[in-house]
Amino acid sequence: MAKTMTVTELTRATGIVDVEAGDAVEGDDADGPTFLFPNDGQTFLIFYAGAAAGDQLTFVGNNDEYGRAAASLTFTVAAGNTGVVGPFSPALFNNTNGLVQFAAAVGKGTDFFTAVRITNSQRNGA
Which of the chain's ends, N or C, has fewer CB atoms near its CB within 10 Å? Predict the structure, then answer.
């Protein structure tokens, strides 16, 4: 199975979310270890690796517009650290439903994933 995540909207006014709260998904979610999130090219994944050995995420890539073979993206975060990966080009990472797919190698309950979309709705920090 796969778990479809909710994307949290961020602006300069809202700041960064707590990666372990809100719409965060735990690495050992019952619908994992494959996860999906909507992507419009302004979406990032924030990942906290609480597992003792850290974790490695693999994002599924697509063939490019010229038919060159897809390349998956692998991203590793050491234990106790937070990583941010993205934005994701829709042409290279979205599936036919407009979702980015990734899998966690370890996927422990101490790992947290939060998908965020960064918008610029505020001008000059106002």
Answer: C
